[in-house]
Specification:
4-stranded antiparallel β-sheet; 45% helix
Length: 152
Amino acid sequence: MVKKISMLRLFLLPLMVAFTVLLSGCQEADIEPAELTEAQNKALQLRVEERWQARIAHDWGKAWEYSSPAYREVFPKHLYVKKFSYTADWELTGIEVTHYDPSAAVASVAVGVMSRPTKQTTAAAKAIGPMQRSIGEKWLLIDGEWWFGSSY
């Protein structure tokens, strides 16, 4: 009985080690790069900029076109354009890709925006003046194209 267990260990131990090495090698081959390529990064920044240029121009229909296909399927353009007002003017001051999750194909982007009221009707609005802020956005990579997912 002891010989059978020893023989079994001699046979199974190398087999288990080989299987573990093989399995870990397969897992590493399937992992996508954790960072965006330069081309992906440029394409993402261009899409973010184009969407914000549409927002700055108050062209809500054009801004809607950058929304993800799933969002556009649920929220038609005519409803989307009604959720905005013209109470602020924006200026795009910067775009920074802060994180990319390759397993989810989602990028986090910090968008720098200077905003100011369109009509300075109060003394407070005049005193405060333009305000700089950073808006976090999630962008989805779907079939090689970047789509706006959400702000946070």
